[in-house]
Amino acid sequence: MTGSRPPIRVAVVGSGAIATGRHLPALAAMGDRVDVTALADLDGARVEAAADEHGVPGRYTDVDAMLAAESPDLVIVCTPPSAHKGAAVAALDAGAWVWCEKPPALSLAEYDEVVAHEGGGTGPFASYVFQHRFGSGAERLRRHIAEGTLGRPLVGVCHTLWYRDPAYFEVPWRGRWETEGGGPSMGHGIHQMDLALSLLGDWSEVTASMSTLARSTRTEDVSSAIVRLESGATLSVVNSLLSPRETSYLRFDFEDATVELEHLYGYDNTHWRWTPAPHAARAGSGASWQPQEDVPSSHRIQLAALLDAMERGERPRAGGHDGRRALELVAGMYRSAFLGGTVRRQDLTPDDSFYHSMHGGDAARAAAALT
Protein backbone atom coordinates (compact mmCIF):
# COMPACT_ATOMS: atom_id res chain seq x y z
CA MET A 1 0.00 0.00 0.00
CA THR A 2 0.97 3.66 -0.36
CA GLY A 3 1.71 5.13 3.07
CA SER A 4 -1.16 4.22 5.37
CA ARG A 5 -3.74 4.05 2.59
CA PRO A 6 -5.28 0.70 1.72
CA PRO A 7 -5.03 -0.21 -1.97
CA ILE A 8 -7.82 0.94 -4.28
CA ARG A 9 -9.93 -2.06 -5.23
CA VAL A 10 -10.34 -2.22 -9.01
CA ALA A 11 -12.61 -4.25 -11.28
CA VAL A 12 -12.36 -4.31 -15.07
CA VAL A 13 -15.45 -4.75 -17.24
CA GLY A 14 -14.54 -6.26 -20.61
CA SER A 15 -11.57 -8.56 -21.18
CA GLY A 16 -10.74 -7.93 -24.83
CA ALA A 17 -7.59 -6.44 -26.36
CA ILE A 18 -7.87 -2.98 -24.81
CA ALA A 19 -8.27 -4.48 -21.33
CA THR A 20 -5.49 -7.04 -21.60
CA GLY A 21 -3.14 -4.94 -23.72
CA ARG A 22 -3.49 -1.55 -22.03
CA HIS A 23 -5.45 -1.44 -18.81
CA LEU A 24 -4.26 -4.53 -16.97
CA PRO A 25 -0.58 -3.68 -17.65
CA ALA A 26 -1.23 -0.09 -16.50
CA LEU A 27 -2.80 -1.43 -13.30
CA ALA A 28 0.17 -3.73 -12.74
CA ALA A 29 2.47 -0.71 -13.04
CA MET A 30 0.65 0.93 -10.10
CA GLY A 31 2.05 -1.71 -7.75
CA ASP A 32 0.41 -1.82 -4.34
CA ARG A 33 -1.61 1.35 -4.95
CA VAL A 34 -4.28 -0.94 -6.44
CA ASP A 35 -5.72 -4.38 -5.92
CA VAL A 36 -7.29 -5.79 -9.09
CA THR A 37 -10.04 -7.96 -7.65
CA ALA A 38 -12.23 -8.91 -10.60
CA LEU A 39 -12.82 -9.12 -14.34
CA ALA A 40 -16.26 -9.26 -15.94
CA ASP A 41 -17.11 -10.20 -19.51
CA LEU A 42 -20.11 -11.77 -21.23
CA ASP A 43 -17.74 -14.37 -22.69
CA GLY A 44 -16.92 -16.70 -19.80
CA ALA A 45 -14.03 -18.41 -21.56
CA ARG A 46 -12.40 -15.12 -22.41
CA VAL A 47 -12.69 -13.74 -18.88
CA GLU A 48 -11.18 -16.93 -17.46
CA ALA A 49 -8.24 -16.76 -19.86
CA ALA A 50 -7.58 -13.08 -19.15
CA ALA A 51 -7.93 -13.53 -15.39
CA ASP A 52 -5.54 -16.50 -15.44
CA GLU A 53 -2.97 -14.56 -17.47
CA HIS A 54 -3.05 -11.51 -15.20
CA GLY A 55 -3.65 -13.19 -11.86
CA VAL A 56 -7.09 -11.73 -11.16
CA PRO A 57 -9.12 -13.78 -8.65
CA GLY A 58 -12.70 -12.71 -9.37
CA ARG A 59 -14.28 -13.85 -12.67
CA TYR A 60 -17.81 -12.83 -13.65
CA THR A 61 -20.13 -12.84 -16.65
CA ASP A 62 -22.57 -10.37 -15.05
CA VAL A 63 -21.63 -6.82 -14.05
CA ASP A 64 -24.29 -6.48 -11.36
CA ALA A 65 -23.19 -9.73 -9.73
CA MET A 66 -19.58 -8.55 -9.80
CA LEU A 67 -20.46 -5.20 -8.23
CA ALA A 68 -22.48 -6.85 -5.47
CA ALA A 69 -19.83 -9.43 -4.64
CA GLU A 70 -16.66 -7.34 -4.96
CA SER A 71 -17.66 -3.75 -3.94
CA PRO A 72 -14.85 -2.22 -6.03
CA ASP A 73 -13.68 1.36 -5.50
CA LEU A 74 -12.95 1.83 -9.21
CA VAL A 75 -14.50 0.18 -12.27
CA ILE A 76 -12.68 0.40 -15.60
CA VAL A 77 -15.03 -0.01 -18.56
CA CYS A 78 -13.42 -1.66 -21.61
CA THR A 79 -16.54 -2.86 -23.45
CA PRO A 80 -17.71 -1.93 -26.95
CA PRO A 81 -19.23 1.58 -26.94
CA SER A 82 -22.88 0.53 -26.76
CA ALA A 83 -22.29 -0.93 -23.28
CA HIS A 84 -20.41 2.07 -21.84
CA LYS A 85 -23.41 3.87 -20.37
CA GLY A 86 -24.96 0.84 -18.70
CA ALA A 87 -21.73 -0.30 -17.07
CA ALA A 88 -20.87 3.24 -15.93
CA VAL A 89 -24.30 3.87 -14.39
CA ALA A 90 -24.29 0.50 -12.60
CA ALA A 91 -20.84 1.15 -11.17
CA LEU A 92 -21.67 4.67 -9.98
CA ASP A 93 -24.90 3.47 -8.38
CA ALA A 94 -22.86 0.85 -6.54
CA GLY A 95 -20.58 3.58 -5.17
CA ALA A 96 -17.60 2.98 -7.47
CA TRP A 97 -15.68 5.53 -9.48
CA VAL A 98 -15.55 4.92 -13.24
CA TRP A 99 -12.82 5.17 -15.86
CA CYS A 100 -14.31 4.42 -19.27
CA GLU A 101 -12.77 3.90 -22.69
CA LYS A 102 -13.59 6.24 -25.57
CA PRO A 103 -15.97 7.26 -26.94
CA PRO A 104 -17.48 8.18 -23.56
CA ALA A 105 -21.04 7.41 -24.70
CA LEU A 106 -23.12 7.06 -27.85
CA SER A 107 -24.65 10.52 -27.42
CA LEU A 108 -24.66 13.65 -25.31
CA ALA A 109 -27.88 12.41 -23.71
CA GLU A 110 -26.13 9.24 -22.56
CA TYR A 111 -23.15 11.21 -21.29
CA ASP A 112 -25.36 13.51 -19.24
CA GLU A 113 -27.28 10.53 -17.87
CA VAL A 114 -24.03 9.09 -16.52
CA VAL A 115 -23.18 12.44 -14.90
CA ALA A 116 -26.59 12.42 -13.21
CA HIS A 117 -25.60 9.22 -11.39
CA GLU A 118 -22.38 10.66 -9.98
CA GLY A 119 -22.09 11.50 -6.31
CA GLY A 120 -21.75 15.02 -4.98
CA GLY A 121 -18.81 16.50 -3.14
CA THR A 122 -16.14 13.83 -3.10
CA GLY A 123 -17.66 11.46 -5.67
CA PRO A 124 -17.89 8.90 -7.03
CA PHE A 125 -17.18 10.42 -10.44
CA ALA A 126 -16.82 9.12 -13.98
CA SER A 127 -13.90 10.01 -16.24
CA TYR A 128 -12.76 8.86 -19.66
CA VAL A 129 -9.66 7.50 -21.36
CA PHE A 130 -8.02 10.49 -23.08
CA GLN A 131 -4.43 9.58 -22.32
CA HIS A 132 -2.83 11.95 -24.82
CA ARG A 133 -3.56 14.86 -22.48
CA PHE A 134 -1.14 13.50 -19.91
CA GLY A 135 2.26 13.25 -21.62
CA SER A 136 4.90 15.80 -20.65
CA GLY A 137 4.74 17.60 -24.01
CA ALA A 138 1.02 18.34 -23.65
CA GLU A 139 1.39 19.24 -19.98
CA ARG A 140 4.22 21.65 -20.75
CA LEU A 141 2.23 23.28 -23.54
CA ARG A 142 -0.80 23.55 -21.26
CA ARG A 143 1.27 25.47 -18.70
CA HIS A 144 2.56 27.85 -21.38
CA ILE A 145 -0.98 28.54 -22.57
CA ALA A 146 -2.15 29.21 -19.02
CA GLU A 147 0.78 31.56 -18.41
CA GLY A 148 0.39 33.31 -21.77
CA THR A 149 4.07 32.86 -22.62
CA LEU A 150 3.40 31.88 -26.27
CA GLY A 151 0.94 34.67 -26.99
CA ARG A 152 -2.62 34.13 -28.17
CA PRO A 153 -3.57 30.92 -30.00
CA LEU A 154 -4.53 31.80 -33.57
CA VAL A 155 -4.65 28.73 -35.84
CA GLY A 156 -4.83 25.00 -35.15
CA VAL A 157 -4.68 21.77 -37.15
CA CYS A 158 -6.05 18.47 -35.80
CA HIS A 159 -5.67 15.55 -38.20
CA THR A 160 -6.25 11.88 -37.46
CA LEU A 161 -5.27 10.14 -40.70
CA TRP A 162 -5.43 6.40 -40.08
CA TYR A 163 -5.96 3.30 -42.21
CA ARG A 164 -8.44 0.50 -41.57
CA ASP A 165 -8.86 -2.18 -44.22
CA PRO A 166 -12.26 -3.64 -45.16
CA ALA A 167 -11.83 -6.61 -42.79
CA TYR A 168 -11.74 -4.21 -39.83
CA PHE A 169 -15.42 -3.43 -40.37
CA GLU A 170 -16.45 -7.09 -40.32
CA VAL A 171 -16.55 -6.95 -36.49
CA PRO A 172 -20.33 -6.80 -35.92
CA TRP A 173 -20.44 -3.67 -33.74
CA ARG A 174 -18.15 -1.53 -35.88
CA GLY A 175 -19.42 1.05 -38.31
CA ARG A 176 -22.98 1.03 -36.92
CA TRP A 177 -24.77 3.93 -35.30
CA GLU A 178 -26.49 1.80 -32.69
CA THR A 179 -23.31 0.11 -31.42
CA GLU A 180 -20.33 2.38 -32.22
CA GLY A 181 -22.17 5.70 -32.34
CA GLY A 182 -20.38 6.91 -35.47
CA GLY A 183 -17.30 6.55 -37.63
CA PRO A 184 -13.76 7.95 -37.30
CA SER A 185 -15.11 11.25 -35.96
CA MET A 186 -16.49 9.33 -32.98
CA GLY A 187 -14.17 6.40 -32.38
CA HIS A 188 -10.76 7.43 -33.73
CA GLY A 189 -10.22 11.18 -34.13
CA ILE A 190 -11.86 11.88 -30.79
CA HIS A 191 -8.47 11.37 -29.08
CA GLN A 192 -6.75 14.15 -31.01
CA MET A 193 -9.81 16.41 -30.85
CA ASP A 194 -9.93 15.97 -27.10
CA LEU A 195 -6.25 16.87 -26.79
CA ALA A 196 -6.71 19.98 -28.94
CA LEU A 197 -9.76 21.18 -27.01
CA SER A 198 -8.20 20.39 -23.64
CA LEU A 199 -5.41 22.78 -24.62
CA LEU A 200 -7.34 25.49 -26.47
CA GLY A 201 -10.67 25.46 -24.61
CA ASP A 202 -14.29 25.32 -25.64
CA TRP A 203 -15.49 25.63 -29.21
CA SER A 204 -18.26 27.99 -30.33
CA GLU A 205 -19.27 26.86 -33.84
CA VAL A 206 -18.46 24.21 -36.43
CA THR A 207 -19.02 23.63 -40.14
CA ALA A 208 -18.42 20.05 -41.29
CA SER A 209 -18.54 17.67 -44.24
CA MET A 210 -18.56 13.85 -44.16
CA SER A 211 -18.56 11.01 -46.67
CA THR A 212 -18.50 7.23 -46.97
CA LEU A 213 -15.97 6.82 -49.78
CA ALA A 214 -14.38 3.38 -49.65
CA ARG A 215 -15.52 1.16 -46.77
CA SER A 216 -18.61 -0.93 -46.13
CA THR A 217 -19.90 1.02 -43.14
CA ARG A 218 -23.16 2.72 -42.21
CA THR A 219 -21.25 5.71 -40.87
CA GLU A 220 -18.68 7.99 -42.44
CA ASP A 221 -15.15 6.84 -43.22
CA VAL A 222 -13.82 10.41 -43.59
CA SER A 223 -14.82 13.78 -42.14
CA SER A 224 -13.53 17.33 -42.09
CA ALA A 225 -14.52 20.45 -40.21
CA ILE A 226 -13.65 24.07 -39.57
CA VAL A 227 -14.08 24.86 -35.88
CA ARG A 228 -14.19 28.31 -34.34
CA LEU A 229 -13.08 28.41 -30.71
CA GLU A 230 -14.38 30.69 -28.01
CA SER A 231 -10.94 32.31 -27.94
CA GLY A 232 -11.44 33.36 -31.57
CA ALA A 233 -8.86 30.88 -32.90
CA THR A 234 -9.71 28.59 -35.83
CA LEU A 235 -9.12 24.82 -35.82
CA SER A 236 -9.06 22.58 -38.91
CA VAL A 237 -10.11 18.98 -38.23
CA VAL A 238 -9.78 15.92 -40.52
CA ASN A 239 -10.59 12.33 -39.50
CA SER A 240 -9.93 9.49 -41.93
CA LEU A 241 -9.72 5.70 -41.96
CA LEU A 242 -8.51 5.69 -45.58
CA SER A 243 -4.96 7.05 -45.24
CA PRO A 244 -2.15 4.54 -46.00
CA ARG A 245 0.55 6.71 -44.41
CA GLU A 246 -0.99 6.85 -40.98
CA THR A 247 -0.37 9.82 -38.73
CA SER A 248 -1.88 11.81 -35.90
CA TYR A 249 -0.88 15.43 -36.43
CA LEU A 250 -1.63 18.48 -34.34
CA ARG A 251 -0.31 21.99 -34.94
CA PHE A 252 -0.90 25.08 -32.86
CA ASP A 253 0.13 28.51 -34.16
CA PHE A 254 0.48 31.09 -31.41
CA GLU A 255 1.63 34.68 -31.74
CA ASP A 256 5.13 33.73 -30.58
CA ALA A 257 5.58 30.11 -31.68
CA THR A 258 4.32 27.14 -33.65
CA VAL A 259 4.02 23.92 -31.65
CA GLU A 260 3.57 20.62 -33.55
CA LEU A 261 2.95 17.05 -32.50
CA GLU A 262 3.16 14.14 -34.97
CA HIS A 263 2.78 10.58 -33.74
CA LEU A 264 0.43 7.64 -34.30
CA TYR A 265 -1.02 6.04 -31.17
CA GLY A 266 1.15 7.66 -28.52
CA TYR A 267 4.00 10.14 -28.15
CA ASP A 268 7.06 11.13 -26.18
CA ASN A 269 9.02 14.37 -26.30
CA THR A 270 10.73 13.43 -29.57
CA HIS A 271 7.39 13.70 -31.37
CA TRP A 272 7.02 17.42 -30.54
CA ARG A 273 8.52 20.34 -32.45
CA TRP A 274 8.62 23.92 -31.18
CA THR A 275 9.38 26.71 -33.68
CA PRO A 276 9.66 30.23 -32.26
CA ALA A 277 8.45 33.18 -34.29
CA PRO A 278 11.30 35.33 -35.64
CA HIS A 279 10.84 38.02 -32.99
CA ALA A 280 10.75 35.40 -30.21
CA ALA A 281 13.84 33.64 -31.55
CA ARG A 282 15.73 36.94 -31.55
CA ALA A 283 14.74 37.41 -27.92
CA GLY A 284 16.43 34.09 -27.09
CA SER A 285 13.43 32.59 -25.30
CA GLY A 286 12.91 29.49 -27.44
CA ALA A 287 14.70 27.00 -25.19
CA SER A 288 12.33 27.64 -22.29
CA TRP A 289 9.42 26.32 -24.35
CA GLN A 290 10.76 22.77 -24.46
CA PRO A 291 9.49 20.09 -22.03
CA GLN A 292 12.14 19.38 -19.40
CA GLU A 293 10.98 15.86 -18.51
CA ASP A 294 10.04 13.04 -20.87
CA VAL A 295 6.80 11.37 -19.86
CA PRO A 296 5.13 9.54 -22.77
CA SER A 297 1.37 9.66 -23.19
CA SER A 298 -0.10 6.40 -21.90
CA HIS A 299 -2.92 4.74 -20.03
CA ARG A 300 -0.51 4.35 -17.12
CA ILE A 301 0.12 8.07 -16.67
CA GLN A 302 -3.59 8.94 -16.83
CA LEU A 303 -4.41 6.13 -14.41
CA ALA A 304 -1.90 7.51 -11.90
CA ALA A 305 -3.56 10.94 -12.15
CA LEU A 306 -6.99 9.34 -11.64
CA LEU A 307 -5.82 7.50 -8.52
CA ASP A 308 -4.44 10.80 -7.19
CA ALA A 309 -7.85 12.44 -7.72
CA MET A 310 -9.61 9.55 -5.99
CA GLU A 311 -7.33 9.87 -2.98
CA ARG A 312 -8.02 13.61 -2.82
CA GLY A 313 -11.76 13.07 -3.28
CA GLU A 314 -12.04 15.42 -6.26
CA ARG A 315 -13.32 15.13 -9.83
CA PRO A 316 -10.55 13.81 -12.11
CA ARG A 317 -9.57 15.46 -15.36
CA ALA A 318 -11.39 14.20 -18.47
CA GLY A 319 -14.69 13.97 -16.59
CA GLY A 320 -17.73 16.22 -16.28
CA HIS A 321 -17.63 19.19 -18.66
CA ASP A 322 -13.92 18.59 -19.19
CA GLY A 323 -14.64 15.13 -20.60
CA ARG A 324 -17.62 16.25 -22.67
CA ARG A 325 -16.03 18.79 -25.04
CA ALA A 326 -14.90 16.40 -27.76
CA LEU A 327 -18.15 14.41 -27.74
CA GLU A 328 -20.07 17.67 -28.05
CA LEU A 329 -17.89 18.72 -31.00
CA VAL A 330 -18.54 15.36 -32.68
CA ALA A 331 -22.31 15.88 -32.30
CA GLY A 332 -21.96 19.34 -33.82
CA MET A 333 -19.97 17.95 -36.73
CA TYR A 334 -22.61 15.34 -37.52
CA ARG A 335 -25.41 17.90 -37.28
CA SER A 336 -23.60 20.25 -39.64
CA ALA A 337 -22.72 17.50 -42.12
CA PHE A 338 -26.23 16.03 -42.24
CA LEU A 339 -28.34 19.20 -42.07
CA GLY A 340 -25.93 21.66 -43.68
CA GLY A 341 -24.68 24.98 -42.43
CA THR A 342 -22.84 26.04 -39.32
CA VAL A 343 -23.76 24.65 -35.90
CA ARG A 344 -23.31 26.65 -32.74
CA ARG A 345 -22.32 24.84 -29.58
CA GLN A 346 -25.32 26.35 -27.80
CA ASP A 347 -27.65 24.66 -30.32
CA LEU A 348 -26.95 21.18 -28.93
CA THR A 349 -29.60 21.16 -26.22
CA PRO A 350 -31.97 18.35 -25.16
CA ASP A 351 -34.49 19.84 -27.61
CA ASP A 352 -32.18 19.00 -30.53
CA SER A 353 -32.27 15.53 -32.13
CA PHE A 354 -28.47 15.40 -32.37
CA TYR A 355 -28.24 15.63 -28.60
CA HIS A 356 -29.90 12.22 -28.48
CA SER A 357 -28.03 10.44 -31.31
CA MET A 358 -25.16 11.24 -33.61
CA HIS A 359 -27.29 10.66 -36.72
CA GLY A 360 -30.04 12.91 -35.37
CA GLY A 361 -32.57 10.09 -35.14
CA ASP A 362 -32.72 9.58 -38.92
CA ALA A 363 -30.31 6.91 -40.19
CA ALA A 364 -31.75 7.11 -43.71
CA ARG A 365 -31.06 10.84 -43.91
CA ALA A 366 -27.53 10.22 -42.63
CA ALA A 367 -26.93 7.54 -45.26
CA ALA A 368 -28.12 9.87 -48.02
CA ALA A 369 -25.84 12.66 -46.78
CA LEU A 370 -22.80 10.38 -46.73
CA THR A 371 -23.07 9.12 -50.30
UniProtKB/TrEMBL annotation:
It comes from the Bacteria. Residues 8-117 form the Gfo/Idh/MocA-like oxidoreductase N-terminal domain. Residues 140-251 form the GFO/IDH/MocA-like oxidoreductase domain. InterPro entries: Gfo/Idh/MocA-like_OxRdtase_N (IPR000683), Gfo/Idh/MocA_Oxidoreductase (IPR052515), GFO_IDH_MocA-like_dom (IPR055170), NAD(P)-bd_dom_sf (IPR036291). SUPFAM superfamilies: Glyceraldehyde-3-phosphate dehydrogenase-like, C-terminal domain, NAD(P)-binding Rossmann-fold domains. PANTHER family: D-GLUCOSIDE 3-DEHYDROGENASE, UDP-N-ACETYL-2-AMINO-2-DEOXY-D-GLUCURONATE OXIDASE. This is Gfo/Idh/MocA family oxidoreductase. It comes from Nocardiopsis tropica.
